[in-house]
Specification:
- By secondary structure, the chain is an alpha+beta fold.
- It is about 45% helix and about 20% strand.
- A three-stranded antiparallel β-sheet has the order 1-2-3.
- Helix 2 packs across helix 3, helix 3 packs parallel to helix 5 and helix 4 packs across helix 5.
- The chain is globular, with a radius of gyration of 14 Å.
- It starts with a helix and ends with a helix.
Length: about 130
């Protein structure tokens, strides 16, 4: 575990251990939208699902395949989207995620996949407005 502690920040380890909002979107009110992106050559696939009501995210979940940084980033975004307006996607860009998670530069490509999945989901939500 000592080697892992050096590679992953405390936030990544906490999110990876719990993976809040991982799984399928449960039933509920609002319109369901999704966004998905992958770069299999980078070892990353992410899908976000959300329920949108009155321009706000009322529920959000994700499914992902990738390294702990990828999964932690998806969990962080899904957790923070609850209650947010759909116009707040700038707060979740890959560079900002990399800094917050303490991800090394070589993980940026994977975090761009997370950003792309989110952008796809929010684009579908915007189209409903």
């Amino acid at each position: 575990m000592t080697g892992t502690r050096a590679i992953y920040s405390q936030l990544v380890r906490e999110l990876f251990e719990r993976l809040p909002h991982a799984g399928d979107l449960g039933p509920g009110a609002g319109t369901a939208v999704h966004g998905e992106a992958m770069a299999l050559d980078r070892g990353a696939w992410v899908r976000f699902d959300a329920r949108i009501e009155d321009g706000r995210v009322v529920d959000c979940s994700f499914r992902a395949w990738g390294c702990p940084h990828t999964l932690a980033a998806a969990a962080l975004i899904a957790s923070r989207l609850h209650g947010e307006g759909i116009g707040n996607e700038a707060a979740f860009d890959a560079l900002r995620l990399a800094r917050e998670l303490g991800a090394p530069a070589e993980k940026l490509g994977r975090l761009l996949v997370v950003e792309d999945a989110l952008s796809g989901m929010l684009a579908r939500a915007h189209a409903l407005q």
